[in-house]
Design a protein that fits this description.
This protein is 40% helix and 22% strand. It is of the alpha/beta class. Bound molecules: calcium ion (CA).
Length: 240
């Protein structure tokens, strides 16, 4: 596993690098946004750890650019600021997770493992876990193929980030059942999660924008206020 760290504070960058190298990850470090973006676009990395505050092109601009180019590289965003607005903004721009400075090595390792696990489970499909390879809404509109990692809404091919993909898969897999915030967070983000309902709000909004015909009046991904979310309607599961 190869991880790119984009962070201008050398102390923080070397703390992260030491921690990750001790876990046998290969680590590359870039200290400004332009270099970081160029390195990320080379496509050699399994994860990007990106600081929000960078000289030149900042973390938000790097994120925007990567996602605009449809890169699905998992991104863990770092910031010194802990406001909810920043957090939502970062997730909105396409980060998969968020870590507020200062953080411990244990927290860093847990987030890195969770990000990599999500990415690899969506990449490898679900052949090994015995779960369906194809999920399709009964009306035929929404289609997910886990093997090809393909999503279609009507006649459109939809590009989802690994986290969005896994969230949609969970919702479709348990269609008709209300999934609580906690159970969705644990299933999609990992067992370390459960309280981050704001992650879900952001990701559900993004998913609706990508897959719903009318995102503001969703037909499939329905909010159960105070409880969680449900995929409305039946889903047909099959194997290829
Ligand atoms: Ca910084």
């Amino acid at each position: 596993m190869r991880i790119l760290v984009v962070e201008d504070e050398t102390k923080v960058a070397s703390f992260i690098q030491r921690g990750l190298e001790a876990e046998h990850y290969t680590v590359d470090v870039a200290s400004d946004g332009d270099t970081g973006l160029a390195r990320a676009l080379e496509g050699h990395h399994d994860l990007l750890i990106l600081d929000l505050m960078l000289p030149g092109r900042d973390g938000a601009a790097v994120l925007r650019e990567l996602r605009a180019r449809r890169h699905t590289l998992p991104i863990l965003l770092l910031t010194a600021r802990a406001t909810v607005v920043d957090k939502v903004r970062g997730l909105d721009l396409g980060a998969d997770d968020y870590l507020t400075k200062p953080f411990s090595n244990d927290e860093l390792q847990a987030r890195v493992r969770a990000c990599l696990r999500r990415a690899s489970s969506s990449e490898n499909g679900n052949e090994s876990s015995g779960q369906p390879e194809i999920l399709q809404s009964e009306d035929g509109y929404l289609y997910m193929n886990m093997v090809k990692r393909q999503v279609r809404a009507g006649d459109r091919d939809i590009r989802l980030t690994p986290t969005e993909f896994e969230l949609l898969r969970q919702l479709m897999l348990y269609a008709g059942k209300v999934l609580t915030h906690r159970s969705l967070l644990r299933a999609v983000w990992g067992p370390e999660y459960g309280e981050e309902a704001d992650y879900l709000r952001v990701y559900v909004r993004q998913l609706r924008l990508k897959v719903e015909k009318e995102p503001s009046n969703p037909r499939y991904i329905i909010t159960e206020p105070g409880i969680g979310y449900v995929f409305r309607g039946n889903v047909v599961a099959q194997n290829v």
